[in-house]
């Protein structure tokens, strides 16, 4: 008998695990009872559905005064009629159609809990001729509607925003689109100034969750009574350091691009090439100006110049297809004989052009003079500028969004490899 009871109990326990719905059995009869007041409130509570038109009715409930105001604004924009708010307070909201003689009217105020708002009186009929002009479609309202979309698609174009607004029957102007997009982006990413204030916390989190990384933030603060002013930021993730030391060539390219945010600045990047000739980022910095100091810090380092920049200056002073062709032949020559022969041709054509190139150290731009220890024969800085194009729209984002966006890009690239 006891064994039978135990077996039955085990089967019930097994059935409990097989029950995928996971229903919870109430402990007492009181939990099964339904509160009539709560049931009424639940049934009458208004919920926003963007796929359906908003319809008001007497006795309808809203979670608070802000929810009612937002629903009223959406309703007015949807129905396209002017509105006049007679009362717009925390304890009552009364609005009428702003066309003289029209009978449309709505009034809402809190119920017993002083929080939930109820429509107490409502006259839905219009006795006026409504027009399509609506002062309620402000950039603030548009920004709120764009928040959900821009969280998943942060780079909405003007056309995309116009299509999104058409869902509400709104035809925004170009200026409204720009302002709404800017406000929505600031709401999502915080303003540029607030982003700078969050950098110290980001530094702590980075060191905590990615040990071995380098993050240095420098501020200018004359005294304790003055707010610190951001000067520069340097970050190198541990994966970047380890990858450079283990699997990359001893060759580093530096380049900078101007940031497009409110405070400007320069994004300075250091990249190299891995064994597959692919770009590998080492570190990045955000500074107010661009000034390389590797000659003082690394006296043993050998500097190179980008031949594309040399070519641009050379062509502006010494135009001509033949001269520029000879320049590239000299730069890309793999041996000293070919280099000297090409330089002699340049000298015979234009001795000033020859003198201009002779002032530049040969080891800084001519391929045949490059150090064989670096295992890199690139004569241009194209792959660094490819990196600048790779970061895309991040250049215009707040600094914290920029830094975190770069981290994600770097980590995805490292994971892919």
Automatic annotation (TrEMBL):
This is Transposase MuDR plant domain-containing protein. PANTHER family: MUTATOR TRANSPOSASE MUDRA PROTEIN (PTHR31973:SF187), POLYPROTEIN, PUTATIVE-RELATED (PTHR31973). InterPro entries: Transposase_MuDR. It comes from the Eukaryota. Residues 53-119 form the Transposase MuDR plant domain. The gene is LOC113696529.
């Amino acid at each position: 008998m006891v064994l039978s009871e135990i077996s039955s109990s085990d089967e019930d326990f097994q059935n409990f695990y097989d029950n995928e719905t996971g229903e919870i059995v109430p402990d007492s009869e009181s939990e099964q009872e339904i509160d009539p007041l709560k049931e009424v409130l639940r049934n009458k509570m208004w919920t926003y559905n963007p796929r359906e038109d908003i319809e008001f009715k007497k006795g309808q409930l809203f979670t608070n005064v802000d929810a009612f105001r937002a629903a009223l604004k959406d309703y007015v924009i949807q129905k396209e009629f002017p509105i006049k708010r007679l009362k717009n307070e925390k304890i009552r909201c009364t609005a009428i159609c702003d066309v003289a003689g029209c009978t449309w009217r709505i009034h809402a105020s809190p119920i017993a809990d002083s929080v939930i708002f109820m429509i107490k009186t409502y006259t839905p009929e219009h006795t006026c001729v409504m027009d399509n002009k609506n002062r309620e479609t402000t950039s603030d309202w548009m920004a709120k509607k764009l928040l959900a979309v821009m969280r998943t698609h942060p780079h909405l174009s003007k056309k995309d925003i116009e299509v999104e607004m058409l869902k509400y029957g709104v035809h925004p102007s170009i200026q409204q689109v720009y302002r709404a997009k800017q406000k929505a982006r600031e709401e999502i990413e915080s303003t540029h100034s607030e982003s700078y204030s969050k950098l110290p916390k980001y530094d702590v989190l980075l060191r905590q969750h990615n040990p071995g990384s380098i993050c240095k933030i420098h501020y200018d603060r004359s005294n304790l009574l003055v707010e610190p002013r951001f000067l520069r930021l340097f970050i190198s993730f541990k994966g970047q350091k380890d990858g450079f030391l283990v699997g990359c060539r001893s060759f580093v390219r530096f380049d900078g691009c101007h940031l497009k945010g409110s405070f400007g600045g320069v994004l300075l990047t250091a990249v190299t090439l891995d064994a597959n000739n692919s770009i590998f980022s080492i570190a990045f910095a955000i500074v107010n100006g661009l000034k390389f100091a590797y000659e003082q810090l690394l006296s043993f380092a050998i500097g190179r110049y980008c031949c594309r920049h040399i070519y641009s200056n050379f062509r502006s002073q010494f135009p001509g297809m033949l001269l520029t062709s000879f320049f590239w032949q000299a730069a890309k020559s793999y041996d000293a004989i070919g280099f000297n022969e090409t330089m002699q041709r340049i000298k015979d054509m234009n001795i000033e052009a020859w003198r201009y190139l002779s002032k530049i150290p040969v080891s800084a731009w001519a391929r045949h003079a490059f150090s064989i220890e670096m295992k890199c024969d690139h004569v241009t800085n194209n792959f660094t500028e490819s990196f600048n194009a790779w970061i895309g729209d991040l250049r215009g984002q707040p600094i914290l969004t920029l830094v975190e966006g770069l981290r994600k890009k770097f980590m995805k690239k490292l994971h892919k490899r």
